[in-house]
Amino acid sequence: MGTFFSRADQAFISTARGPELSIVVPTFKERDNVRALVDLLDAALVGRRWEVIFVDDNSPDGTAQIAKELALADARVRCLKRIGRRGLAGACIEGMLASAAPVVAVMDADLQHDEALLPEMLAAIEAGAEIVVGSRYIDGGGVGAGLSATREQGSHLATWLARRLLGVTLSDPMSGFFMVKRSVFDGVAPRLSSQGFKILLDIMASSPHPLAAHELPFTFRARQHGESKLDSLVALEFLSLLLAKLFGDWLSVRFVLFVLVGATGLVVHLAALSLALSSGGLPFDAAQALATAAAMVWNFGLNNQLTYRDRRLTGWPMLWGLITFCLVCSVGALANVGVASWMYHADAAWRPSWWLAGTAGAL
């Protein structure tokens, strides 16, 4: 079709008959990659009816505006702009739900995924596969220059955990480049978590039956523009997803994250208590109060960055959120200090150590 029809003609034919493939691309601060990606998709999918849905998390660099400008000239381009919500998994889910195509693909906007593989992935779906994954870890694939040594090691560890704990047989369940039948996605969508980055793993682990999966090799390319959105908190999100799936989704990912943050808060509490007693020379009551305040600030900050990452507060709203959080926690804080002080100052015959009294108060 590309030989006889212009790009505008192809777009008209595609939309007139409806797309056979939707490519969902989550974006945040990717304005320099959007036009290039559409051009690459246009070249790779000649003869196919396709659409691309950019799901933008209100990027401050105008990514959504670029996508909308492209959509004015090419009906195959769509843009969903999310306000007050953030996160790769949630963006992927919303984009896939917005598609009516029988097959949906997910890929990154940073040009690290090989768009030339899409026709072969679609052919595999048409041949009977329910899900097709672009893999970096089978023969012919590779991480190339797309991953640092640290991230590559982390990816291998996450893959090992997913295979051992969840029984996922894919060589690369951490891949963000895959294609799935729309009917399969619709079946698992109610059980998917909108948090985290590993939407493929979530789909595989949430399916009530083993999916007919097919893997194709690709080499992970180096990012051309912008910067990676992954940070050190991704490991905790991944661990939470594993635990939620191990418990059959009886515990939500957000609840697991909240508990993990609370556990780290106890460590911060004891560290602050020890420091206040040993280096600060404070009496136990004052040290316990200071440690309690430190743990509250820590818990709020980490929950804001991790547990509620999709609605993260910044600037003055974050400060007000911290103040109200501490006010709500104040009753518990008074009980904390009271219980710990009562135990610490108890009869010398059974008085517990500082850390045991501090722990009891925190709990």
Short description:
52% of the residues lie in helices and 10% in strands. It is an alpha/beta fold and 363 residues long. The termini are far apart.
Describe this structure as you would to a colleague:
The chain has 363 residues and is an alpha/beta fold. The chain is 52% helix and 10% strand. It is built from 13 helices and 7 strands. Strands 3-2-1-4-6-5-7 form a 7-stranded mixed sheet. It is elongated, with a radius of gyration of 25 Å.
SSE topology:
Elements: H1 7-17, E1 21-27, H2 31-44, E2 50-56, H3 63-73, E3 77-81, H4 88-97, E4 103-106, H5 118-126, E5 131-135, H6 149-166, E6 178-181, H7 182-188, H8 199-206, E7 213-217, H9 234-246, H10 253-278, H11 284-307, H12 315-344, H13 354-362
Parallel strand pairs: 1-2, 1-4, 2-3, 5-7
Antiparallel strand pairs: 4-6, 5-6
Keywords:
13 helices; 7-stranded mixed beta sheet; single chain; alpha/beta; about 375 residues; elongated
Count the DSSP helices. Answer: 13
Instruction: Provide the helix percentage.
Output: 40-55%
Q: What structural class do helix, strand and pairing data support? A: alpha/beta
Number of strands: 7
Radius of gyration: 25 Å
| Mean model confidence by pLDDT | 84
Distance between the termini: 67 Å
Globally, the shape reads elongated
Spatial order of the strands forming the largest sheet:
3-2-1-4-6-5-7
Topology order in helix (H) and strand (E) letters:
HEHEHEHEHEHEHHEHHHHH
